[in-house]
Specification:
Elements lengths: L5 E7 L12 E6 L5 H9 L17 E6 L3 E5 L10 H17 L3 E9 L6 H12 L4 E6 L6 H15 L4 E3 L8 H13 L1
Parallel strand pairs: 2-4, 2-5, 5-6, 6-7
Antiparallel strand pairs: 1-3, 3-4
């Protein structure tokens, strides 16, 4: 896909503040520090649009980005290692679940996992929730450039086994590996 424009629209936590039009949306979900922002920036070819950080839990609201004036990317707060009070993390979790459950504009959820690590209990819970609620989603394993081909092959096999799926897309934000395949899946979901 050719990106002609990509702009940050707004950050919001609760439904009353989310954009209210019917623009299709693609959500990015995953553990804190899994590389959601880096993946979004590499997909769009724009540095720093989605704020990446080495500190887990920087994304604390739902961040909406308008792409090509036609669809939106939505970066959801990460779960897991974020350094934040339990009450705040509970709010993030509630807002994310409400978004995934209610959002009619949502055409695809991109569930991001780190290819270097076994999926966490929370990763599995998210996957099972998406499957149970029949939400279109795709599992993307990031940071593939940090493993040898053999390690990557073994780890992806393990990820596929944990999620009981054949389809795990391998991605590297730095090497752009998997970028065309991921855009293909996004474009397909936008046409549905």
């Amino acid at each position: 896909m050719r990106i002609t424009s990509a702009e940050f629209l707004k950050s919001a936590l609760w439904e009353t503040d989310w954009p209210r039009d019917h623009t299709p949306e693609v959500a990015f979900l995953g553990r804190s520090n899994v590389g959601k922002s880096s993946l979004i920036n590499s997909l769009l070819g724009v540095r720093g649009l989605a704020r990446a950080s080495n500190t887990p839990g920087r994304t604390q609201l739902l961040n909406f980005f308008l792409i090509n004036d036609q669809f939106r990317f939505v970066d959801l707060p990460g779960y897991g290692y974020a350094k934040a009070p339990k009450a705040i993390k509970a709010e993030w979790s509630q807002a994310a679940e409400e978004f995934l459950a209610k959002r009619e504009q949502l055409v695809l959820s991109i569930h991001i996992v780190d290819s270097r690590h076994e999926p966490s209990k929370q990763d599995l819970q998210l996957h099972e929730w998406l499957v149970h609620h029949h939400k279109p989603h795709l599992i993307v394993a990031t940071k593939s450039d940090k493993l040898s081909n053999n390690e990557l092959r073994q780890n992806i096999k393990r990820v596929a086994s944990v999620f009981r799926t054949e389809q795990v897309l391998i991605y590297s934000a730095t090497k752009k590996r998997g970028r065309d395949e991921l855009w293909g899946a996004i474009e397909k979901s936008l046409k549905s």
